Amino acid sequence: MLLLIVLPPPGYLLLPFAVLLLAIALMPLAAVRHWEHRHPWWAAGLGTVCVGYYLFVRGDAGSVLHAAHEYVSFMVLIGSLFVVAGGVHLSVKSEARPWTNVLFLVIGAFIANFIGTTGASMLLIRPWIRMNQGRITGYHVAFFIFIVSNIGGGLTPIGDPPLFLGFLKGVPFWWTLQHCWQPWVVAMLAMLGIFYVLDVRNFRKTPQCEAAHETWRVNGLHNLFFLAIILGSVFIKNPPFLREGIMVVAALASWMTTRQEIHQANDFTMAPVKEVAWLFLGIFATMIPALQYLQAHAAILGLQSEWQYYWNCGILSTILDNAPTFLAFLATAFGMAGLELPSGMSDFLASHSGTLAALSVSSVFFGAMTYIGNGPNLMVRAIAHRTKVETPGFLSYIFRYAIPFLLPVLFLVGILFFR
To answer: Could you tell me the residue ranges of all domains in the chain?
Structure first.
């Protein structure tokens, strides 16, 4: 039985993951009512195929328990941030001028480095929708995901999960800021410039926006205390589930101490987090063999240069969760360098800092290419969809926004810094 555990999974076990990705992409177009009511069955059913194989054929309960632990930790973090952010109501001036939008995105990007891309996304997506009320389109949602939910958090370990995993493996806290700020600046300036051009054109077509005549005001400020508790608990490693327990308590305290009118002003419901919970249940389950297959065959990719690490890690971060993908390629890079993770981190940083920078940048930036590349992406999409905002579908997001606008910027970053 031990021999089975160390062998990579068979290739056909990647099919459930592929089918789930296709279902997420195509079913909302081909059978929207069926998908709205049956997506939990798709996710749970395809996930059960992989879990059943590992439990009853492979005899590898450890891999299932590890994925279950990661899923619980992921959903508790997402859910607690969702609840706490839902108790903060930011009133904005609904002018939706292009320069105001750019400034808002810049502020959101900086905030993401202190409260994480998930925290910043949950806190700011509703104000973003309200301030653009009357002319919000799909590109507003897409660029919010590009900048606030992903690229913005690329400077600190708090910003995005791959960077936090690197920190836990021994990367110094300020290393990312010191070595990745230049790609971050280039990507941010490029994305903000593209957005500004698009937003100016949109604004000229609809110059008379219906403003709500609100002033900038924040209600529910006490929830920032609970937000700080959640973010601080992220650094707790032992004992098991203490971190998650603290997050749940903070979320419950936030819910009970927030006035009902604040939740009503935010149109707060648990529907978006339920949708994300079911879809990521299937993703985490079907991703078990996909990640193991990647780890077992990473060496045949012939990874030798920063350019190769940048693109291989980046491309797989678009369809796999970017955090475990980063960790898989980091382990591969250590193995290729003849070092062990994490004990060899200091030697790796001394001789392969460019490789680590390539992996850090690509896992964070490429996570914006699809809705499933990074945790907050699908949550932002679900919130926007629930508020009746024009929201790109899975394929529309990729082909109308990610490929024509984001991918050239990612190519530019790769050429300038990792070629």
So the answer is: 11-418
Residue with tokens 């382990």: 331
What is the C-alpha to C-alpha distance for residues 54 and 289, in angstroms, rounded to an integer? 9
Q: CA distances (Å), 205 to each of 70, 93, 143, in order?
A: 46, 20, 19
**Residue 89 Cα distances to 30, 46, 128, 293, 352, angstroms:** 36, 38, 12, 44, 45
C-alpha closest to that of 238 among 228, 226, 246: 246
The answer to whether residues 134 and 209 touch, using CB atoms and an 8 Å cutoff, is: yes
Give me 165's structure tokens.
């995993």
**pLDDT values of the chain reduced to their tens digit, one per residue, 419 residues:** 333 444 678 888 989 988 998 888 888 877 878 888 889 999 999 999 999 999 999 999 998 998 898 888 888 888 888 898 888 887 776 667 899 999 999 999 999 998 889 888 988 998 999 888 888 999 999 999 999 999 999 999 888 888 988 887 888 989 999 999 999 999 999 999 999 999 999 998 876 555 445 566 788 889 989 989 988 888 887 888 898 999 999 999 999 999 999 888 888 888 888 888 898 899 889 988 887 887 777 666 677 899 999 999 999 899 877 887 888 888 788 878 877 777 888 999 998 999 999 999 999 999 999 998 888 898 899 889 888 888 898 899 999 999 999 999 999 999 999 98
- Residue among 117, 149, 140 nearest 195 (CA): 140
Q: Is 280 in contact with 328 (CB distance < 8 Å)?
A: no
